[in-house]
Specification:
The complex is a heterodimer of chains A (285) and B (369). Chain A is 70% helix and 4% strand. The two termini of chain A are 24 Å apart. Chain A is mainly α and 285 residues long. In chain A, helix 1 crosses helix 13, helix 3 packs across helix 13 and helix 7 runs antiparallel to helix 10. In chain A, a hairpin with a 4-residue loop joins strand 1 and strand 2. In chain A, the strands form two sheets. A two-stranded antiparallel ribbon of chain A has the order 1-2. In chain A, strands 3-4 form a two-stranded antiparallel ribbon. Chain A has two domains: 68 residues, no CATH class; 201 residues, MetI-like (MetI-like fold, Orthogonal Bundle), CATH 1.10.3720.10. Chain B is elongated, with a radius of gyration of 25 Å. Helix content of chain B is 26%, strand content 34%. Chain B folds into two domains: 222 residues, Rossmann fold (3-Layer(aba) Sandwich); 137 residues, Nucleic acid-binding proteins (OB fold (Dihydrolipoamide Acetyltransferase, E2P), Beta Barrel). Chain B is of the alpha+beta class and 369 residues long. In chain B, the strands form five sheets. Chain B has a six-stranded mixed sheet with strand order 6-7-8-3-9-10, sandwiched between helices. In chain B, strands 16-20-17-18-19 form a five-stranded antiparallel sheet, with no helix packed on it. In chain B, strands 2-1-4-5 form a four-stranded antiparallel sheet, with helices on one face. The chains are: A mainly alpha (285), B alpha+beta (369). Chains A and B meet through helix 8 and helix 9 of A and strand 6, helix 2 and helix 4 of B.
Chain lengths: 285, 369
Amino acid sequence: MQQKSTLEQILRGVALACVIFFFMFPIFWILLMSFQTNETILRVPPSMVFEPTLTNYRSLISGTLEGSTATLEIKFMGNLWNSLFLSVTSVTVGLILGVPAAYAFAKLKFRGSEDIAFTLLSFRFAPPLLVLLPLTIYFQQLGLADTYFGLIWVYQLIVLPLILWIVRGYFEDIPSDIEYAYRIAGHGFWTTFRKIALPLAGPGIAAAGLLAFIFAWNNFIFALVLASADKQPVTVGALAFITAAGINYGQIAAGIMLSIAPTFALALYAQRYLVEGLSLGAVKG
Amino acid sequence: MSLKLAGITKAFKKEIVLQDVSLDVETGKTLVLFGPSGAGKTVLLRLIAGVIEPDAGTIQIAGRDMEGVEPEDRDVGMAFQNFALFPHMSAEDNIASPLTAQRQSQSEIKSGIQALAKLLKIEHVLGHKPKELSNGQKQRTALARALAGKPGSLLLDDPLRNVDAKLRFEMRLELPRLLKDQNATVIYVTQDYKEAMAFGDQIAVIHEGQVQQIGTPEEIYLTPATTEIARLFGDPVINLMDVAPEARGRMVSVSVSDQPIMLDPGYAEMVGQECVLGVRPEAFRFVEPNSPSAIPVQVETEAPLNEKTVTLVLTAGGREVMVTRPSGTPGPNGGTAHITIDSAATLLFDRASGRLCVPKATIAGEAIA
């Protein structure tokens, strides 16, 4: 590789710093806000100098919001748990259903496979609000409204097409000869799927799972309409911070920090799988 | 394990890849599938391995019809041209894959791999992933994987194609012995006529999805069914000259540069037809100018080729002819020279169809003998 000139390296560093500053500053600012009281947050001009306090986190974890006039109960930790439960279960169900389906669409070309795959993708085209109205009525009649089961089912609209279409591409990239070779070596169809197709599509499955998790985690509208207070995820639960007595910016900031923590941790963890990519050194053009 | 294909036809979409292919390989024998790329050789191997199904025809392995039999139940081993190693497994695990399928014990698998790795000189890279292997090592790993399960039939898809010349030469010597030791029925695909001649008990020449000729290497070389096959087997290539046979008493002759070449009288029915005379470069001989039926030629260039020396000469009629002689034997001193043709070693083809003409009397003679 050619040695880069010093100027180029400096410019590169400056550009990177700008990008990082642009994207990370809001999060950094929220992090600062989460350690402040409403008064220090709202002072003009804003300052980075303040006395840090843990009251925001303490009130979120204990579940009591102490306003100037009254004490309000919030279920933030419950919401966090709901988010976690809904997202993890939805993605798990989505992977169990979506990965074998993706394999079928990629490798076992059958009649109408393209049409079915496209239909599944088209679930993502419809505006959620359009779907929600009839869905709410159905769910109430079926007794699925305000149940985890019903929510996870609806979440499949978000996660399944995503998983299906990402993973399908990775399966298509696996040369059929590699699978044939394993079959000829004496292994059955399912063993070959498990030992060859799944590991080779691993990075794709990880990427799809991660993206699906983030989409599920960030979902707002389905949960807002279909879930009541005790089943609401953080996205909906955060509305509780807008109280009659005012907006509790400090708690919102602390809530944001807590609610991005799981996705953040997951992304950091899954990163190495994402960049690993398909290593197909065994096959020449 | 014997292998029998009958009337195999396969088309992808509208394109016919194989048409009515029938082959028969006896247990322990090696059949070489020889032909240019796109001839359908690889498709034929895949059909035998069972990863694709034929549109028509039957495949029998060890006398058992293979229709509907899954690849894992066919007792075949296959080495792919592109190696098709499992990229996420070490060379060792690659080679072990047929053994784990046979549910062998850990110690059996270990010793089986060690023996093969030693034979193929890849012991030192067993722990490496495929992308850390050189092409030669990949090829050997793929071969070891195909051999490891001791399958009854071995399908080798041009395994020496992607390796360097030195290794190819070594393997050309080693592989036949290795295959004999396995006692498997082998189908070996290649585009290299030397490999075909070296490995094959039988050679099947495939072109455009059809079997053009099946025979022993000698038969293919000495009596190629068409000018096309004659051209493919032999280096330097056979000299093909347009001729018109004439009757000359009881004999048949053709004239090359105004010199009559006497041919077998059995060619009588080709008299007056447009034909092609095939003369292998080694069937020419340099002679003194006053020798009978000597053809005067102009020497153009001369080049050594292994143990032979190839001379390109030009006849008076402007026809280019390749002549070989064993290196070290006296040759022309440049400028002009004279050559003769060993008429017994010539082949006569019909020009329109390109098919070999078989002299009638010879067939009868052979039948009596």
